[in-house]
Amino acid sequence: MAALCSEFGDLVQIKKQLISVISLCKERGLVHSIMFSLLMHEHVAYVFELEEDAQDMDALGLAKSYFDLKEYDRAAYFLRGCSSQKAYFLYMYSRYLSGEKKKDDETVDSLGPLEKGQVRNEALRELRVELSKKHSAGELDGFTLYLYGVVLRKLDLLKEAVDVFVEATHALPLHWGAWLELCNLITNIDMLKSLSLPDCWIRDFFIAHMYTELQMIKEALQKYQSLIESGFSKSTYIVSQIAVAYHNIRDIDQALALFNELREQDPFRIENMDTFSNLLYVRSMKPELSYLAHNLVGIDKYRVETCCVIGNYYSLRSQHEKAALYFQRALKLNPRCLGAWTLMGHEYMEMKNTSAAIQAYRHAIEVNKRDYRAWYGLGQTYEILKMPFYCLYYYRKAHQLRPNDSRMLVALGESYEKLSQHVEAKKCYWRAYTVGDVERMALLKLAKLHEQLNESDDAAQCYIIYIQDIFSCGEQLEHAEVSTALRYLGQYYFKNKLYEEASLCAQRCCDYNDAREEGKALLRQISQVRDHMEASNTTPVRRVSPLDLSSFSP
Amino acid sequence: MASVHESLYFNPMMTNGVVHANVFGIKDWVTPYKISVLALLYEMTTSKPIALQERRRLNKLILPLQQGPDLTLDQFLKTVEECCPQTAYAVKLRLHEMADGELKDMEYFFATLPTPFSAIDSEAYKTSVVGLFMRHMLLAYNKLSFSQVYKLYKALQQYYHSHYSQPGDVQVGLPALAADDSDMDLTSTEDNVGERMEKEELDTRPEVVDRGPLSQKQAEYFLARQAYLLKNDENKALKPSALQDELNNMLKFNPDFAEAHYLSYLNSMRVQDIFISTHSLLHYFDRLILSGSEGKSNGDEGYGRSLRYAALNLAALHCRFGHYQQADLALQEAIRIAQESNDHVCLQHCLSWLYTLEQMKGSDSSVLTEDSVKMAAHFCLPYLVSLGIQSLVQQGAVQGKTAHELMDALKDTDILHWKHSLSELIDISLAQTTSIWRMYGKSTMAQQQAQLLLNMNSLEQVNFGVQQNNTEAFAVALCHLAELHAEQGLYGAVSEVLKHLKEQFPPHTQHAKLWMLCDLKIQFDRAMNDGKYHLAEPHVTAIAALNKTEGLYRKAQVLKALNRTTEAYSILQRLQLYCEKTKYTEMIIRVMLVTAELHWESSGFATALPLLLQALALARQHHLQALASETILHLAFTQLMLGVPEQALGVLHEAMEPILAHGAVMDKGRALLLAARCQMAMAGTRSNGQKHAALGLAVQSLGEAAAYFSMLDCKERLRDVHYLQARLHHTLGQTPQRNKCAMLFRLLDQELQAPGAPLL
Lengths: 554, 760
Description:
The structure holds 2 protein chains of 2 kinds.
Chain A: H1 2-9, H2 11-28, H3 31-48, H4 52-68, H5 72-79, H6 85-108, H7 123-137, H8 142-154, H9 158-171, H10 176-185, H11 189-194, H12 201-213, H13 217-232, H14 236-248, H15 252-265, H16 273-282, H17 286-299, H18 304-316, H19 320-333, H20 338-350, H21 354-367, H22 372-384, H23 388-401, H24 406-418, H25 422-434, H26 442-452, H27 456-473, H28 482-495, H29 499-509, H30 516-536
Chain B: H1 2-5, E1 14-15, E2 18-19, H2 32-46, H3 52-67, H4 73-83, H5 85-100, H6 103-112, H7 129-142, H8 146-165, H9 174-181, H10 186-203, H11 205-208, H12 216-232, H13 240-253, H14 258-270, H15 274-292, H16 303-320, H17 324-340, H18 344-361, H19 366-378, H20 382-399, H21 403-420, H22 423-440, H23 443-455, H24 472-487, H25 491-504, H26 512-530, H27 533-546, H28 548-561, H29 565-582, H30 585-601, H31 605-621, H32 625-641, H33 645-662, H34 665-683, H35 688-712, H36 715-732, H37 735-753
Antiparallel strand pairs in B: 1-2
Helix pairs in contact in B: 2-3, 2-5, 3-4, 3-10, 4-5, 4-10, 5-8, 12-14, 13-14, 14-15, 15-16, 16-17, 16-18, 17-18, 18-19, 18-20, 19-20, 20-21, 20-22, 21-22, 22-23, 22-24, 23-24, 24-25, 24-26, 26-27, 27-28, 28-29, 28-30, 29-30, 30-31, 30-32, 31-32, 32-33, 32-34, 33-34, 34-35, 35-36, 36-37
């Protein structure tokens, strides 16, 4: 008892102890203990009536711990009188977050279903008024400017918000949050170019990020490459960004390699893993996807990314109901998660539930109008419903968003073909080929279309390019129809009396099971005609340059 | 941190990836305004006797108050006060009790509301409008959670106190009550209340954007009303931009309200915005497909049905914008899927669109139309049947079917219309009859039919105070009326009709082109009659912009009047070829007449003769009496010039009767002038006594002609008439009359030749 009394008597001692234990706890992240100590400390400080500056510091510490415990109103209350910039930021920021939190709570229990869109963060207006006063007086530092920008953006004052964010980046270039916010507000390259941004190394990161967002992948990759060369090679951030960029241009091998590297460096990373799982899905790498899914569940099963990975996993195993369930879970965790809406749409498509698929895609579009996959998915849905004209609109939208993606062009071409709009269809297929056909189907379709329309020269030309294309890319494609092309070319050369080339094609035909018989028949025909020709001896008319197959081997 | 910034709104109504707007089936919920309405109803059902007149006014108010958007307390109290100040005061008192009291006062209020299930005798019985509303409200109130009730109470307090924050409205209470109570004229207020409500609603529109969300009921009512107005009286609907704002607002609060997308489609059609209209249409059907699938998954009633109609609507959209090829493709698609699922009704709709499309493309579609009528009759679709018949009648009229066939067909459809109360088609039918009579040159009949249409009461049950619709039928009838009046030289009446048309169909609307063309034609004709060709010329370009054929025809007329014969001739040749291709008989005959006139100018009367005979044959074959009479006039003139006045007079007599009965004033004058000239020509060959008599007749005809021409203020012709009159009087030795006529002639001649005169 006496000991206790004496200990209490020595408040200075207590204060010192408290300060040390606070910093110890802080280092170990024990937030509740910090708060208790801080409360004690505040009391002690009150007894001592310390000078104002130190009091400010104490209040800040206490408020920070409340803030960490998500008790925003409480934090704001203890910060109300503080004058330092840091305290002011924390004061405003806790008020903002308190408003956001209340808004989220309200939405669940609003008065009616229609009111849910009306729930607003009531604090925003007051914050804006106060901040704009300070702003015009020039009293805001980088962080508060950032907060002001966020408030403006939430109030849909986008133009002002952009200005403020630019100002924030000038005031504090190293604060990545301001850059990220700016990134969300920039819609096109012209807007990006018109902004005057601070000249700092972080700016390069921002520009690279922006390029990725604006689907200017090549420029983005260049930028990242130069950043790696200048010494950021070990940064997981850059590696992940490059991987995502490769994913966007569908360079699957590169992206997979990078993701694997990323996982080695940072095995418990959850961010971006949904993109990784997409890649694994596209390549149908079941074991790897399964491993990834199990691994992520072990780390944190209530993360949007985890749910998406599991959804992909089930989808690959053709358990589409379960896949849809997991995408739904992802959407419950974050309803603005765009990828999940689209993926869910795909799942419903697999389950032949077209109406639910349409709904899911529509939601994706509502979240982000620029989601080309959702538009494409809607187009596919209507195509399945046998409405080729109707789906044109959706494919066009998708094509508008990704003008250089051959898949949309091929889809457009197919729809036009179904509508007997041959001119448009041909244009689409040719364009699809010129922008770099991913699936290598455009030329074949174009050739077949020409064949149908009896434009044999054009058809032969297309088949020739097709064959060259297939052989030059080296890899074996499942759906490749080289035999069809060879068969047609053989017949074509035969008709045009180019017997050398015809027999070459016919011989090549014999390499394929489905065309062997025809190849042999053609060879026989050729030899017959040749016998004839030696008798009559006429020179053939050349129309299309003969196919040079010597350099390629099937 | 990013996740905190995103609005974490979780939708509790979502099951199976599908958002149900109303999982509880509640279409309404309690708001402070609804509490005020409840208070009003409570006062009305429970309180002391209210004067009968006031009660009636209040009763009329109930429905708009229940269905309309939420009003502020000011507006609400003002409206109630206009009906019954006493009740308004009571309502206000009750609200005051609640708002200035505690939460329990509101709870008490809801507890004391007459329960619709027990009160059998009162207006609040469970099946009545009031009872239903009360039940909705009670249900919605009882479903509120603790925090929601508190929030509602807070909202009520705010609602009530915001009323006081605006000064000037405070004295609404007692003093006004005493003043208004005594001598309120029943009839005047009673009629005004509704309108005033509307006006107030309109006045408050600009602020409306800030207004809270509508409940589903209110939204449905709003959409229904706006859609009805768009269809029937566009001027009364909100302005396109305001309506779009409203719709965007609605969609922001409830993105699942698909009907709003459809209205947005209709609205953007008004401003010819293909981009937004396509987008909205497709969005609507994407949503609809979902709601349709709730019942049966893929069957006839399921979303398969909406798919077909989606394609059909898309076809209609492209048709409206004149993209015929696109429309054709969409229509084929609709037909194909309708065929696959054996949906005959949809197929019929497709077929009727198909023939419309063919017609718009300018090809003959009568076979298709006939098929459509037969099939639609088989499937009992009266609307499509009579629409098809009307379309057939239109084609038949152009192609020269006999009048009695057409009239019979129209009569049959009319019976159908009245049987099924298809008011829209009745309007069209009347407008069509007007047009047909007009085409046949029976102006009186046409006028009568047009008046019939304009004076008819609408059959629509829900009228929303619309007196006259602004559908195409009305525009057509009014245009005919304007032209008929112009023919009779009643230009005052014409300008009034046109003014009305301009108000009813503002220039940006769909049918405005009709009156614009009509207006231009009338102005052009006037300028030509007055001989002010330079005034007529600018009209030609304007007419050509609206109607290419008509524009060419008018251009030829102007060129002819300006003596640029070669150009006029080449245009006429082109026009004739084109019209023969499109079977536009009326225009062919007119072109022939103008060509004949051109021949006159080069004195090629003999060459004009076969042309005129051909025109006459055509006009008779198609029963175009007005044109036939005009052709006869031309023929008679040619014969006169060829030196056979007896023949000319004989031919002329044939046309005289219909012209005097139905013709335009201009034609009457021309006919009489021609008759007089023939008579003069014949008199020259006769003996003296007969000559005098004949010349006397001619003088008489000339006098009548002069009267007609002066009605139209047609100076050139008037001058000719006076000249002839003077000559005749001279021959007859009537010096004073001769001098008078000569003087008139001189005056006119001076006026016409004065260089500055035409500009005035």
